[in-house]
Amino acid sequence: MRILSLFLLLTFLSNGIFAQESEPKFWWKRNNLRVIQTNLPDYEAATLNPDSLVKDLVDFSANMLIINAGGIMAFYDTKLDFHYKNPWMKNNMLKEVVDKCHQKNIKVIVRFDFSRVHESIFKKHPDWCYISAKNERIINTDMYVVSINAPYVQDKAFKIIEEVINFFPIDGIFLNMPGYQVNNPYEGKYHGIDQNEYDKKRFAEYSNGKTLPTVEDKADPVFQEYLAFKKSTIEDWSEKLHNLVKSKNEQIAICTYLDKHVDIIRHESQTSNLPYWPYSASDNVSNARNSFPKHIISNASIQQISFQSRYNAAEPEEVSIRLYENIANGSGLDMSMMGDMRGYEDKRNYPVFKKIYAFHKKHEAYFGNYKSVAKIALVAPGSWPNGDPMQEYRGIQLMLKEAHLPFDIIEDAQLTNVADKVKQYQLIILPEITYLKPEAIVLLKELSKAGTNIIATNRSLFDSPETLQELFGAKIINKDHDGTGFYLQPNDAKILKHFKLQKMLFWKFNLGLYDLSGTDKKLFPILSKGRPGPPEIIGGHEPINYYAMGIKEFPQSKNVILPINIGKLYYLHGYEEHKNILLDAIDYVMPKAKELVQTNAPERIEVILQAYGKNVANKNIGSTDNGLIVHLINLTGFSGNSYFDALPVYGRNFTIKTSFKPSKVYDLATKSPIKYVWKDGFIHFQLAKIGEYEGIVIDK
C-alpha cells in the first residue's frame, strides 16, 4: 500500500499536480527573447555567410533570429510555381542558417510577407491582386499588392507555409503586413478600399447582399459593417493558419501584429514625425501586455528612420531607451534591421545592442515575469493610435510619466476581455475614447458604483449621451468648439492646488461647451476670447457660463469630465499648467495616488515599478512573489527633436509602498546592497547616481 501511495505521489508530481516549479510547455513562454531580425534584400541572399551571421548573433547575445523565407519571394528552392523565387538565392542558405543557429541554441523564426506578389505572378493571375475604385493597382517596382480574399492569400499562402515547415526545422513563423491594404506605405500614397471581385463577393455574402463601400466613412453604417467584416475575415484566416501550423508542430510559434490565434504579439517602435515619442516602447508593451495578458509581447526597435530612409538608423540614445523600456514593461529585446549585420550601412547602434542584450542575458532571471502594481489604468484608442485621439492619449501618458504615477495601458476594445483585471484599478482615465462597446460601458457603470473613479477628456463617449449624463452629469452643447484665445479661470483653491499664483490659463485647440448642471462641482469657468491686441486695448475676457471641468460624486467614487483637448495641448506645447489640471483632478478623486512611488527624481527619469518572480529554467514563471523591481530609465538626453547622452542624476530619494518587509535591497547590475529604511509599509532609500538605466531590486 505504501509503495502504491509513493507511486501515485510521484505520478502526481511528474504531472505537475503538486509541483510548484515547472518548465513552460512552449519555449516562447519563458519570455526571455533577445531577437535580431535581418530583413534581407534579394541580393544579400547571394552574399550572406551563415557562419558569420551566427557568430554575430552569439556575439550580440541574441537567442532568436527572424529571417526571410517566403511570400513576396522565396529565399529557398521552392517547388511551387506560384511562389516567385529570389534569383540571387543560394539554394542551401536558409537550411544552413537554421542548422547553424540550432547548434548554438538560437531559435529561428522565418518571415513571410503575403501582401505582394511578383509581376510574373500578377500577369498570370491579375485577379489575385488589389484594385482601387479608380482601377489603380498598388505597385512597388515589380511587386503588386494582393487582395486578402483572393486565392493567393486564401489558399496559396498556406501551401507556401506548409512547404517551408516541411523543408526546415523552424521554431516559428512571422507574418509581416497582415490584413487589408489601402496605402502604398513605401511611397506615402493612399489608394482606398480594395474593390477586387473576391472582396465584393465575400462582403456581399457577409452582409446579406450589401455593396462593398468605396469610401472610409465612419458615419456610414455600411462602412462600420465593413470594418467588422475585415476583422472577421482576418481572424478566420488566422485561425486556419493556426490550425495548419499546430497540426505540423505545436512548438512552432506564430508571431505577428494581430492578437487572435497567435503566440507572440509583435509591435514596433519607430522613429516617427515630430514631436518624437520617447515612451514608444513603454506605450506599446504596456498596451499589448495588459490588453492581451496570455500572450508574449515582443516590441521591435526598428532601425530605419523611415521607409524612404532605410539606410540610416535611429539614434543610439533613442534605441537605448526603447530597449530598456522593453524589459522594464515585460517584453524581451527585439531589433529589426535591413540586411545582414555585416556590411550594414549604419553601425552606430551596434554597441548599444551588444551592451543591453548582454545585460539582459546576464540578468534575465529578473526580466519577463512581472505583475503590475499600478492602480491607474489609461485606456488606449486602439493598438496603433493615430490622429487627434493619439495626441490626446500620448499627452495624458506624458503627464502621468512626468508625475511618476504608475499606470497600466489597456486597449479600448479589450476592456471587457480583461474585466477582472480592470476591476482592480482605483482610477480609469479615458483620453478621448470616443466609442466603447455597449458591454464596456456597462462595465464602467458597474465599476463606478463599486468605487472606481473615472476621468474622461475631450470628446470621450460623445456618441453615448446617456452615459455622459449618468457617469459625469454632462450634456454636450458643442463638442467641437475652437478654444484658441479663450482662457480658463481657476476658481477653487482647495481642489486646484497648483493655481494659487495664476488667475487665468490660456487655451488652444478644442474647448468643448458642455452643460455641467448635473455635476456636483463645476471648475474652471471659461472666459471669452476678448481682445488679444494691440497691447493698448487687450482685455474683455468675460465668463461665458461654461466650465472646463465637472465633478460628479457618488457614494463610493468620483468622476471627472474634462471636455477639453488637454492631452493634445500638453503633448504639442508642453505648458506645465495644463498638466496640473489633470494632476489636481487625480489628487482630488484618488488622494493616495502618489503613495506608490514618491521621488524627487527629475520628470525625465521614467519610473516603472513591477512585482517580479525569478525567471529561470525549470521554474514556474507564473509566480511573481519574489519582491519588487524598480526600473529607472534616464530620458534627460531627450530634447524634443534630438537624442543625446543621458545626464547622470545624483543623490535622489525614493519612497516605495510595499506590502512586505524587505529582506534586502540591491542594485541589479552590480548586486551591491543599497541602504534603506522600512517603516509603516514604506521603504525609503537614496541612490547616489542614476545613469542611463538603473534596476533596483527589493526582495522579500
From TrEMBL:
Signal peptide: 1-19
Keywords of the record: Signal
Recorded coiled-coil stretches: none
Top-rank taxon, per record: Bacteria
Pfam families assigned: GHL6
CDD domains linked to this entry: A4_beta-galactosidase_middle_domain
Protein name: Family 10 glycosylhydrolase
Species in which this protein is naturally found: Arcicella lustrica
Taxon lineage: Bacteria, Pseudomonadati, Bacteroidota, Cytophagia, Cytophagales
